[in-house]
Amino acid sequence: MIKSKKRNATKNLSGGQAVVKCLIKEKVKHVFGLIGSSTMEVFDALYHEKKIKFIGVRDERTGTHMADGYARASNKPGVILAGQNGPGATNLITGIAQASAAFSPVVSIAGSYSTKEKVQDAFQGLDQQSLFKPITKKTWTIKDQKKIPKIFSNAFNLAMSPRRGPVQINLPRDILPKKAKLNIDQTKKSYESKSSLKAKNKDIKKAIKIILKSNKPVIVAGGGIKYTAKYKEVIKLAELLNIPIVTAAGHGDAIPFNYKLNAGQMGPRGNPVASKLVKKADVIIALGTRLGFNSTFYSYENINKKAKIIQVELEKKMLGRYFPITLGICADAATTTNQIYLEIKKQKSKLNIKNWTNDYLNERKIYLNNRESSNNLKKFPIQPKDLFKELRKVLPKNSAITLDAGTLCLQATDALKYFNPPSLFTPLDFGLVGFSFACGLGVKVACPDKTVVSLMGDGGFGMTISELSTAVQYKINTITIVMNNNSWGAEKAYQKDFFGKRYIGADIRSPEFHKVAQLYGAKGFNVNKVLEINHALKAALKCNKPAVINVNVDPKALYSFRRDSFKHRTK
């Protein structure tokens, strides 16, 4: 019977057909891509395959951001197909580098020049194998169509294996039309979505011993908690011991906003209450976080040098990479948290930290009250904090937020409310401008029932505005809020603070984005006053189309986030 199944599974397939059959095996439902002549056989096979929806994009870079957003939101691989070798492949680079920095499982596929040609003589010839190697977990160039099933299986498995990240598959154009008898077992995909790697019992006991001796403990929850959506494990431990929680920068959605022990995001991108906790803590329980750049700037100005750090991470080389640690545990963060919780509960141990936690609760209450007390409804021009306040009022709890880098978006990092992880998507340590809108489209495809709001500056939106046609064509109804200050805000802030206001290249002119949106077939709104934000947001939520809200914010509302990089400069 087994032999019969194998015989029936063997089919005479072209290379292009084999690629698509492999995607079906991996349960792929959506492919983002841009057609090209070198992979026409793949696209023809997609045409005949109704189980996969192809979403045609306008640029391979933004298509990769869509695949990245899809992957992060769905907990599944995001697939991008660049149809052309050479320039089609090089356009992927920024998106793949971004996915690598975010540990996002993107499976990137690109055409390549024929195996019969030398790279220097081929049309659009390029050594794509070497090009992608530094920014992927692994890159393959398939030179024999019989190897397509095995390599695709390995690629999907590797992308989803801890620590996750992008992979690249190059398809030489001459292997795609050739036929071969191939056996593609479509009964089981190649990867698992969940990790449950347990910590060793001896490490659990060591961790508990350190925690129970602390006077000012804090939990730092990062992406390892967020992307598993197992925040309840962290909350149980926090409740048991009455420990405040902070979240790593860019992962403010790891713990629901309305949980009382959640202080919000730490560090230079975060809020002062959360940041103070980490600066004062004597024990830091780092769960699924590297304590990386955006959270700490790798500086003891943002974390207590004397604190004992217990770090739980799936990637061994990240343990103690940026700060010396007292205990490193290579395991799944949520699983380990539950192990600690169960053992402490069994021991019936208590922590006497009432004053530490009560002080935090009072400071958090004052901070949030002050944040909501500002009343600038008639003020012009609009201040970013007033825009964020209106967003907090109007956006539904199921909202997903995507952010760009840049001074305005960085001010939004801890200014909004997140309830259902994952619901915050940022460039993280790659600091990419031009990410948010395209990422939001991918998030919406993965989670069609969520409200998806993308915040961008005018510069970043100008980079990616052509994807409005993708949004309209495929009815991907997100809301993009363009915080328009007519400048590259972060750089202008540095020129203002450190280079004597010698502005060069900082001021930019853009078309009226709300009118451009209308020309694409989307809805467009223009906002000049705080009073108009609420109405525009509510209208955008109801319009059942992709929407762009152009918000004219104060061009002087600039902030130098990286003051440490320029403090040696002379003004």
Brief synopsis:
Helices cover 39% and strands 17% of the residues. The protein is an alpha/beta fold.
Question: What attributes does this structure have?
Answer:
Rossmann fold, 23 helices, 6-stranded parallel β-sheet, alpha/beta, 571 residues, 3 domains
Structure characterization notes:
The chain is globular. It is α/β, with parallel strands linked by helices and 571 residues long. Helix 13 (293-296) links the parallel strand 12 (283-287) and strand 13. The chain has 3 domains: 2-183, Thiamin diphosphate (ThDP)-binding fold, Pyr/PP domains (Rossmann fold); 201-363, 3-Layer(aba) Sandwich (Rossmann fold), CATH 3.40.50.1220; 374-565, Thiamin diphosphate (ThDP)-binding fold, Pyr/PP domains (Rossmann fold), CATH 3.40.50.970. The strands form 4 sheets. A 6-stranded parallel beta sheet has the order 3-2-4-5-7-6, with helices on both faces. Strands 11-10-9-12-13-14 form a 6-stranded parallel beta sheet, with helices on both faces.
